[in-house]
Amino acid sequence: MIRFNFTKTPIKHLLLIAGVLACNTLVAQKVDLIYTTSSERWVEAKRFLKKNSEATADITVYTDQKLQEIDGIGGSFNELGWEALQSLGAQEQQDVMNAIFSEEGSNFSMCRMPIGASDYALSYYSHNDVAEDFEMRDFNIDRDRYILMPYIKAALAIRPDLQVWASPWSPPAWMKVNEHYAMRGGDFENATDGNKLVSGGEILNNATGFKMQERYLKAYALYFSKFVQAYKNEGIQLAAIQPQNEIAFQPNWPSCTWRPEDMAYFIHDFLGPQFEADKLDTKIWLGTVNSGDPNYVKTVLNYKDTSKYIDGVGFQWGGAKAIPTIHKEFPDLKLMQTENKCGEHENDWTSVERSWNDLVHYTNNGAGSYMYWNMILDETGASAWGWPQNSMVVIDKTSKKVTYTDEFYLFKHLSHFVQPGDFVLKSSEGKNHLAFQLKDGRVMVLLNNKENVLKTINLKVGNQIVGVEVQPTSMNTIIFNN
């Protein structure tokens, strides 16, 4: 052991000693790494640190610069997901739900649900299909009691504080100009089993598909209020609603376009006042916005005092080009990515790369919440309208085999650790990493090694530089402990 006589040691030597001790303290800070590749899933690495005090940082995390707060991360409840899950035995069903919602699993904290039929419903329906029932006497959630509600309650049993928000793909058909759930007929893109809308019933120019008469607008506001209240009576408190899914899209499944001026009018004169009158705690968000033109959102927010009713804006992936402008011009507005890109049922690492790029884009432009689309689907991945899409979990209804896809692990790498109340941290520029400040004081770096080579990435977190060895083509969660 070396002993120092501090009463006789020169000051410059004391400073050197202090520096050595400080460096040893920094190196001693515990760092954990979990990685996933296409062949190795959720591996807790044992040896990965490369100590080099003279290394130049590849990525710098500014621990003193918090950005947006995290509101939640999750996916979507849909009827076809619940149907696929029901093909398993009780224990196997529980295992899948635990993998998604438990603290040991993906730990999802926020999910969406449809109001009425989505494109992954079993068929068309709304919560009041009685034409011109403007007083909503026949409003009901009876179908949901047997399909969506058990799905949501199974999640709440694991994660009681799960936040659930809702949006319609279409109003009741009798409230629409063409009196049909869809906006176009026949086959459309990958939806090869499209509805047979009567020729001439299409609405293809982003004109408002809703009947803008006052009696319909009043009835629709009441429809939303009754939906929120009905779910609350069943023990499910909805955190928010977004009045229209994909507000500028005309597919051959449930849909309805709205001009921004008309949506602003609906929120300002009908929906907001209805929620106020009924003393609802459920928030109203503008969304889901799939227009890349930021003027869509600005038109709504700037209409009279409509913004007083709007708690945030949800962007579907078609709105990627708009979110940077909205975040810059409305820096205090909460933002969400409402639907991860659907994919084409490939369910492989190419899906991870696509989803990663969107996750970085939306997070770096202010999004505090991020939603996967279908959490669970069967082996076909097909919607009721024929489009086969990706899911986090694939269940073969015949063989009963359960497969957790690459995207499942991408989201687990994020949501297992990052929870509501955590913060995004400012970090150096780059498209292959994100950084977060966790509530318990730890710093998390999510790192994507897109290169097919073993690499050492030098991370500077606060005053510490650590070289982290990451596997070829891998997703990595790096935790800097207190």
Please characterize this protein's 3D structure.
The longest helix has 20 residues. The N terminus is likely disordered. The radius of gyration is 25 Å and the shape is globular. It has 11 helices and 21 strands. The protein has a 10-stranded mixed beta sheet. The chain has an 8-stranded parallel beta sheet with strand order 5-12-11-10-9-8-7-6. α6 packs across α7. The chain is of the alpha/beta class.
Helix content: 25-40%
Strand-pairing-aware structural class: alpha/beta
Shape designation: globular
Beta content:
15-25%
Q: What value does the average pLDDT take?
A: 93
- Main beta-sheet annotation: 10 strands, mixed
Give a brief rundown of this model.
This protein has 482 residues and is α/β, with parallel strands linked by helices. The protein has 11 helices and 21 strands. The strands form 3 sheets. The protein has a 10-stranded mixed sheet with strand order 2-1-21-18-17-16-4-19-20-3.
Topology (elements, then pairings):
Layout: H1 11-28, E1 31-36, E2 43-44, E3 49-50, E4 59-69, E5 72-76, H2 79-85, H3 90-101, E6 110-114, H4 142-146, H5 148-158, E7 163-167, H6 214-233, E8 238-241, H7 260-277, E9 283-289, H8 295-301, E10 310-316, H9 323-329, E11 334-339, H10 349-363, E12 367-374, E13 376-378, E14 393-395, E15 402-404, H11 406-415, E16 423-427, E17 433-437, E18 443-449, E19 455-461, E20 464-470, E21 474-480
Parallel strand pairs: 4-19, 5-12, 6-7, 7-8, 8-9, 9-10, 10-11, 11-12, 13-14
Antiparallel strand pairs: 1-2, 1-21, 3-20, 4-16, 14-15, 16-17, 17-18, 18-21, 19-20
